[in-house]
């Protein structure tokens, strides 16, 4: 059972400039006109999970956007996102950072080097994870370059890195190291977050099942590149923009072995009582989308898509957990100047970018 989430009326009041025009401490950010709503500091008792959308906006030599350029390869969007996070870890009480995938556009050394330089700035500052997107692996599912840069070897010795899928022998098995899980605690609660490769095959889902069962006492989040978007595979450009949307029933990688987002939900996600949130990207023409599903245990599972590659601004997602209010505020902020998203060309309604999710999260109190 699943339904498109129509909640958000409560958050419209929060978007009024009189409430949200509170400056946040951002390192060297430009001045913002008073009429522009900006992100306020996270209140006492709250904490945040930052979601980095697809960040494949590379410029320079050999990139898709500038194939004839001879300039150095850069990624101003990913650089801006990470700088914002580094400058706001304390003000926003950031407990974890998750990347939804497509951290590169082309699997070439220059882009991987830029991605690593950006993400390495989070090392020792805040726990984080990256879900491999279809641009981060081959059509057949080869993720060797991703594993080299963001696989288990990169996180050796870090207590919050839980582990990774080890792979299976033989050509039919999935490659080890691409899918991983992390552990963190915040607000008196323990969490597990899985970063699953795009269209994860059966053996990866079986591993994810085991990990979720082994950590059933932790509240669970899944980040995977493909989840929401056009339900059926688009046949033309119009379908990307106008076809019915929800949990997708098509795939991009792993060939016959790959599972569609709907199959991943049916085979794995819906079975786990502790899972409450699925994060994804991939669909820049859907851009911002949400879905509410009900698990086999009758639990509410929120699914959120954010992919702003079609927009000129550098939008970044902040999930602000408010335990005492049993609520998560979802805020989309421009990482360059701290302003909140009031709408985009593709999704003009501000309530699709800044809204709240009801979620009971009782905190265990000492007797």
User: Architecture, according to CATH?
Assistant: 4-Layer Sandwich
The helix fraction, in percent, is 10-25%
Determine the strand fraction and express it as a percent band.
15-25%
Q: What is the CATH level 1 assignment? A: Alpha Beta
Shape: globular
Number of domains: 1
Let me know the average pLDDT. Answer: 89
**How does the helix and strand content classify structurally?**
alpha/beta
Q: What is the name of the CATH topology?
A: Purple Acid Phosphatase, chain A, domain 2
- Radius of gyration, CA atoms, in whole angstroms: 19 Å
Spatial order of the strands in the main sheet?
A: 1-12-13-11-8-7-6-5
Largest sheet, strands/sense/barrel: 8 strands, mixed
Tally of alpha and pi helices? 8
What is the H/E string? EHHEHEHEHEEEHEEHEHEEEEEE
Terminal CA distance? 38 Å
Low-confidence stretches: 5-34
Tell me the quaternary state.
Answer: single chain
The number of distinct β-strands equals: 16
């Amino acid at each position: 059972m699943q339904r498109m989430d129509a909640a958000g009326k409560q958050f419209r009041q929060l978007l009024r400039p009189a409430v949200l025009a509170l400056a946040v401490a951002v390192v060297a950010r430009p001045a913002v006109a008073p009429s522009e709503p900006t992100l306020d500091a996270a209140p006492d008792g709250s904490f945040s999970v930052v979601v980095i959308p697809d960040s494949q906006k590379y410029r320079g030599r050999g990139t898709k956007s500038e194939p004839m350029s001879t300039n150095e390869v850069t990624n101003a969007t990913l650089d801006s996102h990470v700088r914002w996070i580094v400058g706001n870890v304390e003000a926003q009480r950031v407990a974890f950072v998750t990347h939804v995938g497509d951290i590169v556009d082309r699997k070439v050394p220059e882009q991987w080097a830029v991605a690593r330089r950006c993400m390495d700035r989070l090392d020792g500052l805040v726990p984080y994870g990256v879900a491999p997107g279809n641009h981060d692996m081959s059509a057949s599912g080869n993720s060797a370059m991703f594993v080299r840069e963001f696989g288990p070897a990169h996180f050796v010795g870090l207590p919050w890195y839980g582990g990774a899928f080890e792979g299976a022998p033989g050509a039919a098995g999935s490659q080890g190291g691409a899918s991983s899980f992390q552990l963190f605690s915040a607000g008196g609660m323990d969490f597990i977050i899985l970063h699953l490769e795009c269209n994860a095959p059966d053996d990866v889902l079986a591993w994810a099942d085991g990990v979720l069962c082994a950590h059933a006492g932790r509240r669970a989040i899944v980040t995977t590149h493909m989840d929401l978007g056009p339900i059926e595979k688009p046949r033309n450009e119009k379908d990307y923009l106008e076809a019915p949307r929800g949990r997708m029933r098509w795939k991009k990688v792993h060939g016959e072995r790959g599972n569609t987002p709907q199959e991943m939900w049916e085979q794995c996600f819906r079975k786990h009582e502790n899972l409450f949130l699925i994060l994804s990207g991939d669909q820049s023409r859907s851009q911002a989308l949400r879905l509410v599903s009900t698990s086999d245990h009758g639990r509410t599972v929120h699914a959120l898509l954010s992919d702003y590659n079609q927009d000129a601004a550098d939008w970044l997602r902040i999930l602000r957990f408010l335990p005492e209010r049993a609520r998560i505020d979802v805020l989309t902020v421009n990482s360059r100047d701290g302003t909140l998203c009031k709408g985009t060309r593709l999704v003009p309604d501000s309530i699709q970018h800044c809204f709240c999710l009801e979620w009971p999260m009782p905190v265990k109190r000492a007797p």
